[in-house]
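Hey, I'm writing a tutorial for new members on how sequence and structure tokens pair up, and I'd like a real worked example in the thread rather than a made-up one. If someone can provide the structure for the chain below, I'll link this post from the tutorial.
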Amino acid sequence: MLENIKIENILFLDIETVPLKANWTELSDSMKELWDKKAKYFRSEEQTSSDVYQRAGIYAEFGKIVCISVGIIVNRKNKMCFRLKSFFGDDEKIILLEFSEMINQHRKNNKNFNLCAHNGKEFDFPYIARRMLINGIKLPKILDISGKKPWEVMFVDTLELWKFGDYKHYTSLNLLTQIFDIPTPKDDIDGSMVADVYWKDKDVERIVKYCEKDVLAVVQLLLKYKGKETIKPENVESVTQN
């Protein structure tokens, strides 16, 4: 499988998500009731559904995307470089429309490209697809996998590759970067802090930097899997515009 993955045909990505509202109190009565039903599956007896509302961001029905970062490997003067770009802000629909436009254009240029993320098959890819439908956006063909055969789905997942068929096993990106001696993307914030950074600190640029670090970590990890040299820091560039 690893030998068949062509690194130049991959668009690496990561998303950052937050609860739809800053606080549980801002939800409508019907959404409060629905969140309460959802929260029963993971809150403790001492906790109320409002106590665990910060977790709402990981569910596409109760959260939204505030950043999608993508990256591709490019060759420049015989050097392997990595080019990053992020779509971010408060208007999720604009983020998704711009991302969709980029995906569709990328497919025109390379019909063999894959999407790659860590735990992408369980989180990033379905989350993006669900939020697109909620926002009334037509799915790009690469995300519209209904009815496709497994080998027709153009997804690469660095977590799945690490499992080697062990579907009970979960390994975080942070742990894998440590054991493969890759700079950790969690040196400033981690996923559990994103909601507060967005809603309380209102610092979306900080989230963008974190998201782009995650994307870089994923490409470095896949290169390690393939036994290839990782990308040097001086060969990483971000074209994200504020």
